[in-house]
Structures are given as C-alpha cells and as structure tokens.
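Researcher: Checking consistency across runs. Here is LysR family transcriptional regulator again:
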Amino acid sequence: MDWDDLRIFLAVARAESLSGAGRRLAMDASTIGRRIARLEQAIGAVLFAKTPQGYALTAEGERLIAPAEATEQAAAAASEATRSEAGLTGQLRIGAPDGCANYLLPQIARDLCAAHPGLEVQILALPRVVNLTKREADMAVAVSAPDTGRLVAQRLTDYRLHLAAHQDYLDRHPPIRDIADLKGHGLIGYIPDMIFDRELDYLSETGTQTAAITSNSVSVQMQAIRAGAGLGIVHDFAIPFAPGVRRVLEDKISLKRSFWLIRHADDRASRRLTLLAELVAQAVRAEVSRLQAEVSAAPHRLA
C-alpha cells in the first residue's frame, strides 16, 4: 500500500470533504477523488460514504485510521532523521482563540521565523476549540485543558482580564466608582450561545447586566470598545494595542485565566514538534508577562 494514498485518505477523513483535503494538500479535488477510488479498489473496501454533510468514514474506513496514522508518524520520524540539525524548518500551524491569535501569536511567529529562517508559521484563529484529532493544527493554545480525546495539555501561564473602556467613552459618561454605577452603561461581550468554553463567560462572573453589543470575536469586541460603544472585559495583554483604552474598576472586577498548550498524544514522539512546542510555550509566557507589565506600568484612569 502506497503511503501517499494513505496520506490522501487521512486528509479526506480529517476534512470530511474532497475540497477540504485538496486545500490541505494543494491538490485538485478530482485528483483526490480518483486516488481514494484507487485505494478502495486496491484494498477491496469502501472507505467513505458520501452524505449531505460530506464524506463520512465507513466501518472499513474507521479500521484503516489507526494503521494510516501509524504510517504517518513513521514517515514524519524518517523525515526528521534526515533533516539538518542546524535549525527548525518546515510548516508549523498553531491554532488559538482569536485573543491569543491577534495579540500574542504575531510577535511570537515573527521571532520564531527570524530565529529559524526555514520555518513557516501558520496562525489558525478560530472562535471555537481547534480540532487536533482531525489535524486542523500541529498544536493549539486553549483557555482550558481538554477532557476528551488523545490529547496532552501543558499549562503555559496565567493572564488577567479587566473591565475597560475608551477614554472618550469615560469622558462622556458619569464617573464609575462601583459596580452599581455600571447600571445604564452599554456593555460589550460574547454572543451568549456562541461561548464555546465556560472560561469565556466573563460577564456572568462579574455579575453585570446583559451586553448590548456582542460578538464571537475578541477583536470585534475590542474594536467596539475603541469606538466608544461601551465597556467590556478585555485581556490586559491586548490593551497596549488599543490606544486610549483604560481599565475600569480594576480593584473590583479582575479575572484570572490560564493558557494551555494542547498537542496530539502521538506527536510527543516527534522531536521537531516537541522542540517547537517548547519554543512556543516559552514565547507565550514571555509575551504575556511583557505586555501585562507594560499595562501595569502605564498611567491610567479608573474613571
């Protein structure tokens, strides 16, 4: 059995479509369809059932997943054995919620690529949990550790969030000295039914009212705050990127969360990915610390 056929099989199984697999492999969907048909003919079994939702694995396809992934790991190990020790090269895809993806990972990717010129870093920003089982990414930063799947989690660092508003908004409204003063103010937060992790349910934890403007994106929430639309819970590490945004009631509303680095359990055998995971972990810790220190050191109004 040809490893390249198995590689295509895994891509279709993970993407659940020929077009999705084609994008991952930079191949034409019709070519992928022919290769899958060839593989099915070679082993004498139907591997996928076409449904309205896409390509679903049959029972025979499910049984092929484990040996195909074992072959994939062996091929990766062989590639690593022949790769130069001079530096880390190739593609690295990191998945993350958009707060981390927007305000931390760009600087981290810049420094990784500068230190390792042959490295290509892809940042996958998603308003949901990254699916490592389907190999959407090589590793993911998450706000909580997974409790299902063949995944391993490494705690990276704690970070802080505070209620914040733009100075223009604060200047146009009465002073906010206590939580009770928030009554009547416009709040900005997540769309309630699109909160994909309980750790993101910020407003309910603060006891404040329902938000008037909501989005599933942290960046959109921050842009609304910058536009003077109201107050919202923001990451301290994002504030340096938003001139004019100030923390409010920081002695009364202060949230602590943690970042975790998630990897597929099988990838621990990869020396390359292990080294890259260590570099990403160190960089996330350092960048969160640097940006939070910058916010704490800067003068700001409590409102």
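Researcher: Does this match what you'd expect to see?
Model: One thing to look at in this run: The chain has a mean pLDDT of 88.
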